[in-house]
Amino acid sequence: MAKTSSSKDAKAYDNYTNYRFAYDNGHDEWVQRARICFDFWRSRQWLESDRALMAAANRPALTFNVIFSLIRTMKGIQKALRNDVRFMPQADADMQDAAVRDAIWLDVSNGNQLLFKEGQVWEKGLITGRAYYKTVMEFDENTRGQIKITVPRSQDVVLDPYVDQYDAKDWPRVFHVPWVTLHDIEHLFGKAAADELGINPTPSWYDYDDVFMGAALGRLPYYTYGDDTNPKMRRAYRLLTQEYKQMTWRDVFVDLNTGETKPIPTDWPRERVQKVLDSVPGLGTDKKRVQTIKVLTTCENTVLRDEESQCNVFSLTPFFPAFVDGVSRGIIEDLIDPQMLLNKMTSQELSIINTTANSGWITESGNLVGITRAELEKIGAKPGFVLTVKDIEKTQKITANQVPQGHEKLSLKADQMLRSIAGVSNQARGFAREDVASEAIMANQAATDVNFADALDNLHYTKQNLAHTCQAYWTCYYDETRVILMNRGSNYRPDVQSVTLNQPTPEGHVLNDITMGKFTTTLIPAPTRSTLSDGDMKNLVMLKKDLGVKIPDDVLIEAFPLSNKLALIQRLKGDSSDHQDAQRQAELQQQQLAAQTEQAKAAKERSAAELNAARAEKFRHEANIDPDAAYERVENRRIDVEERDSQRRFVFDQQKLRLQRETAMQHTATELTKLDHEAREGAKDRVVDIHKTHMQAQKRLEAPRKKPAAKPTTKGKKQ
After folding, report:
1. Which residues, in sequence order, are CB contacts of 151 under 8 Å at separation 6+?
2. Beta partners for 237?
3. What was the pLDDT predicted at 105?
4. What are the backbone angles phi and psi of residue 640, rounded to the nearest 5°?
5. CB distance 493 to 263 below 8 Å
6. Where are the alpha helices (DSSP H) in 267-383?
7. Is 517 left (phi over 0), alpha (psi -120 to 50) or beta?
8. CA–CA separation, 500 vs 502, rounded Å?
9. What is d(CA 205, CA 15) in angstroms, rounded to the nearest whole number?
10. How far apart are CA 404 and CA 58, in angstroms?
């Protein structure tokens, strides 16, 4: 290979040379192993040469793909033990800031269907031993950019031979080398770049494998571009993207209290940097030699991108089920030999049975009557076949080979070895025998979870690393005011709230500033609803009934796998709201009654005061004025006061009776509603009890009846 003179061509040549070095020193070996594992997963478990030999010998080549069943069970275990990420403040932040990061993470996860892609990564990792997330900023649907997470082909990610750590932040470099078309080049880098590549031939320093693969893919119509005047130039293009570390001088923020530093994005203007310094006390700037991520993208001899990463993180996040000192392993690698043994033993057993049914005949030439030798070979094993020969002593049926002793146990041993090596028992797959105790089944299922602890820990660690990568992207690109929506409830009880990011205030501050603060992550359990076991539901019922934990009815119903749970929850909410309205109305009436009682007491006290004043005036008049006239006026006034007081008491008694009657009616209605609800619940319980009684009676009827023991007889002497 001879280097070209152009500096751009030299970068493209160096990039391709580094890629081929990494490919030839470890990646090609892993690709071969991954191809075999993938073939066993998709039921291509026989070599074509072996299958041809078996067909030529008229022997079956059976495939019982237990590996696929085991991988499917492992996916179910992953869904049952799924975790999610939550952010925790570490420096210059509080729990409110962490809640904002949680909202952004949920928005990114839902927008990228991360639950489904996590299952893809888990399955790819189990099969091939390597799987990856790729995080990029996409501007197709949003001019301000949005985070996009994809799951690339594991074969297109080439690791540096010196990688010996699980976390990508400790890698020196990584390559992403997919095959693309000129349409993809135009979409990513513009039409000029696509036109330039379309008219240039393949470089002379390209490896033969890449030249051959590009030409083979180019024969597909998918790779047609433009007028396509020269079909010989049509080919696929290897897009080489290398992300590697380098040291460079950068302006950094410095926390004057803790001494921590953080690089300032290169595209930030001075005004923005000064605004951050003014808003954050104890923050300064400095120039420092820091480690950054450089991104170099080339295609053949053309440089398409050569710049520093704004986010300063690798875009690829790896998942390895097992990883030690740069060596990754999946699950299928150790299952290949037992799977081959199972296929060969079952095929051999069927071959022996076939030869038993048609082992062949021995006879002399010309001894057959009315049938040829070819016809005898074809129909000689049919039931009811009658053979006519001239000499019966010269004709006999060949004795078939017997199945060797212990041969039939080898297939059972192969099946047991498959499940033992994989760590998946029949109980974990839901195929436990009926006579096994439930406690033993639960203990066996718990042991299955332990068998996958390492792989699941790596998957959860990968998810935390992915969250940190996404945080680096939104810290770098989400620098303007945005509004995101998030559902803090569930699918059956949604609670949609809006969160405003980087919201400026009149005082000059910024609320929910996602560019500030330092955070770490933690994990919380987040299994899917479909994996909630009967034991979990029984535990919820036990907490409510036996331990008295006040679990709301709608939460309990939501945990059960019911098809009409939404309607039940809505109806339950309606009944509960009616009951609460009745309760509030009764409380209001009680308050009104108490207020009127206080008013009546005050009126009574005023009447008594007026009566006492009238009596005092009576005695005063009797002493100074005509006793008879004064007495008459005082008595009339006293009578008037007593009449008014009697009227007030009568009105108060009437109102009190009316309120008591209404309260009693409301209380009766509430009790009737409560009794109706309890009756419905009791009816459901009775139906369940009747069903259980019916099932128990049916089992007793179906059970084999024991023959009564015969009574012993005693032979005595005849009297």
Report:
1. 117, 120, 121, 124, 131, 132, 133, 134
2. 180
3. 94
4. -65, -45
5. no
6. 270-279, 336-357, 373-379
7. left
8. 7
9. 12
10. 20
CB neighbour list of residue 357: distance below 8 Å, 6 or more residues apart? 381, 400
Instruction: Give yes or no for a contact between 93 and 129, defined as CB atoms under 8 angstroms apart.
Output: no
Q: Pick out the chain residues at pLDDT < 50.
A: 1-5, 531-532, 576-577, 705-719
- What is the C-alpha separation between 104 and 514, in angstroms, rounded? 10
Spatial neighbors of 288 by CB under 8 A, at least 6 apart, are 249, 250, 252, 261
**669 to each of 662, 665, 673, how far by Cα in Å?**
11, 6, 6
How, if at all, do strands 179-180 and 237-255 pair? antiparallel
| Long-range CB contact pairs, 341-345, < 8 A, 24+ | 341/410, 341/414, 341/417, 342/64, 342/66, 342/411, 342/414, 342/415, 342/418, 343/45, 343/46, 343/61, 343/62, 343/63, 343/64, 345/407, 345/410, 345/411, 345/414
CA distance 453 to 448: 9
Q: How far apart are CA 331 and CA 37, in angstroms?
A: 9
Residues shown for the chain: 719
Sort strands 361-362 and 396-397 into parallel, antiparallel or unpaired.
antiparallel
Residue type at 23 in one-letter notation: Y
CA distance 157 to 132: 8
The continuous run of DSSP H or E covering 484 comes out as strand 482-487
445 phi and psi angles, rounded to 5 deg: -65, -40
Q: Check if the beta carbon of residue 523 is closer than 8 Å to that of residue 460.
A: yes
Domain ranges of the chain: 565-693
Say how far apart CA 14 and CA 4 lie, in whole Å: 10
Max intra-chain CA distance, the chain: 168
3-state secondary structure 28-60: HHHHHHHHHHHHHHCCCCCCHHHHHHHHHCCCC
Q: Per residue, what are the HEC states of 221-269?
A: HHHCCCCCCCHHHCCCEEEEEEEEEEEEEEEEEEECCCCCEEECCCCCC
Spatial CB neighbours of 322, under 8 Å, sequence gap ≥ 6: 129, 328, 329, 330, 454, 455, 458
| 133: enclosing H helix or E strand | strand 131-138
Residue 565 is predicted with a pLDDT of 61
Q: What gap in Å lies between CA 418 and CA 342, rounded to an integer?
A: 9
Structure token digits, residue 6:
């152009």
Q: CA-based angle 44:45:50, to the nearest 5?
A: 105
pLDDT at 714: 44
Radius of gyration in angstroms for the set of CA atoms belonging to the chain, rounded to a whole number: 43
Sequence-distant (≥ 6) Cβ neighbours of residue 537 within 8 angstroms: 559, 560
The backbone torsions φ and ψ at residue 604, rounded to the nearest 5 degrees and listed phi first, read -65, -40
CB 557 within 8 A of CB 572: yes
**DSSP codes of every residue in 495-528:** -EEEEEESEE-TTS-EET-TTS-EEEEEEEE---
pLDDT given for residue 1 in this prediction: 40
Closest-CA residue to 296 (of 240, 237, 238): 240
**pTM given for the model:** 0.71
How far apart (Å, rounded) are the C-alpha atoms in residues 218 and 233? 9
If we measure between CA atoms, which residue out of 217, 203, 133, 201 comes closest to residue 168? 133
Tokens of 584: 């509030």
Structure tokens at 118: 């996590």
Of 239, 233, 224, 226, nearest to 201 by C-alpha is 233
- Give residues with Cβ within 8 angstroms of 458, minimum separation 6: 166, 319, 320, 321, 322, 323
